[in-house]
User: Which sequence fits this backbone?
């Protein structure tokens, strides 16, 4: 079995564009409250947003050679989604890798680990969602996989799944479920518009949702 796959199925461009209009939280709710990555994975800057198909990477602890390989394997618009064997204390990604990724028009990075050169990355405007910052360097001994299934937290991520992230967090949308989830997300936003109008009339959230108040 090849450890590195370069050919994967990706969502339709139109579906990616539609998904980008929704918040990560809305898509998570529309997906039946599934697909949320651990809350410890946050954007370097709160305004960062990300949306694109996953290029999945599994890396040995404190080694980042497979991350360099992933930059080559990815296509324009892809999102690198990386697990590092649960060892966070290393700066797996930095400013040079960011420049390389931007040259290849990669849309961003999700990593269940740490990065470094945070200010430089933010100045470049490249979306990075990570466990935090760490100055410790990494080795280049090799190992790992690209575009094989990986798991982050309780979420199994397949190559080509849709990744959507913003200041609230990151959600993974299975590729085969995207259209159904987008329809539910649209309906959810319509429902919330109606709720907002009801609130303007003086109704309470308890009344709107039909919950029995303990205060009455």
Assistant:
């Amino acid at each position: 079995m090849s450890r590195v796959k370069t050919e994967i199925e990706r969502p339709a461009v139109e579906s990616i564009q539609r998904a980008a209009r929704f918040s990560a939280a809305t898509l998570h709710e529309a997906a039946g409250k599934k697909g949320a990555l651990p809350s410890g994975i946050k954007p370097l800057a709160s305004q960062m947003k990300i949306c694109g198909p996953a290029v999945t990477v599994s890396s040995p602890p404190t080694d980042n050679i497979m991350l360099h390989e992933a930059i080559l394997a990815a296509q324009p618009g892809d999102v690198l989604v990386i697990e590092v064997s649960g060892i966070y204390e290393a700066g797996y990604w930095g400013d040079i890798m960011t420049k390389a990724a931007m040259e290849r028009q990669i849309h961003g990075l999700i990593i269940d680990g740490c990065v470094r050169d945070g200010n430089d990355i933010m100045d470049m405007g490249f979306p990075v969602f990570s466990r935090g910052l760490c100055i410790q360097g990494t080795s280049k001994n090799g190992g790992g996989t690209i575009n094989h299934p990986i798991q982050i937290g309780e979420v199994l991520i397949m190559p080509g799944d849709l990744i959507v992230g913003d200041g609230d967090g990151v959600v993974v949308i299975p590729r085969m479920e995207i259209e159904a989830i987008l329809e539910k997300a649209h309906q959810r936003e319509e429902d919330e518009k109606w709720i907002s109008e009801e609130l303007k009339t003086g109704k309470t959230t308890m009344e709107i949702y039909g919950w029995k108040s303990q205060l009455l």
Observations:
- Residues 13-209 form a domain with the Glucose Oxidase; domain 1 fold (CATH 3.50.30.40).
- The helical segments are 13-19, 24-30, 65-73, 95-103, 118-124, 178-200, 205-209.
